[in-house]
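Below is our example:
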Amino acid sequence: MSAPAPRTRRRSPSAPGTGRRLPLRPALPAALLLFLAVLARSGAAGRAADFLDFGAGVLALVALTGTVVWGLAATDRRVLSSGHRLLAQAVHRGTGVAGLGFLALHIGVKVARGQTTGRAAALPFADGVRPALIGLGTLAAYGFLAVAVTGAARTAFTGRAAARWWRALHMAAYLAWGTALVHGLRAGRPAAGWVTAGYAACVAAAALVLAYRLRPAGPGGGRSGALADRGAATAGRAVPRAPEGRP
């Protein structure tokens, strides 16, 4: 006959240790409210809103530029190994999520501050003051959103024809990125020097990686071709040549 299982002992509400934690529960919301009140009185919330009004779009473009650059790097087979390509794909997805978050924050701040309307943010070229430039931003947002959705649902694009459609839709990221660049430089107030330098760095980074990606491969096609050529050269040196005039 097996021994009865030991009964767990429940701690009573008056046990030492439980009573010490009870006063902390109402203190946390009170401390949070006090922190928010001090933040509002100091004007930090307004300064943060001013920064987001000007900088959220820049942060979105920088993050989405990183998405484009790391997406190009993730397809490289000349320098990166398979493990490095998986890491590049992870960074590509992470910067994409961050870029979409900053993009949503950028749109929300602009609508909340009355610099555009929700209708203009949803419908391209519906803004009453700057329809073309605001419309480019709306189109860019839809382009990035479409790329994100098709990227997340990549497994649904099975088959050769579906894979071609997926690549075509994913290539819309380059068009959306260029459109967002024009929108960022021309839609708002004149850009500060550091913003223009940041945009120039984004263009340079994307251009360098794209130029490297479009560079023609060697005769053997990348790293595997180079290894094959090296092996063929080694084999050619290992086989002695027959003297001239002999079979």
Remarks:
- The chain has a mean pLDDT of 77.
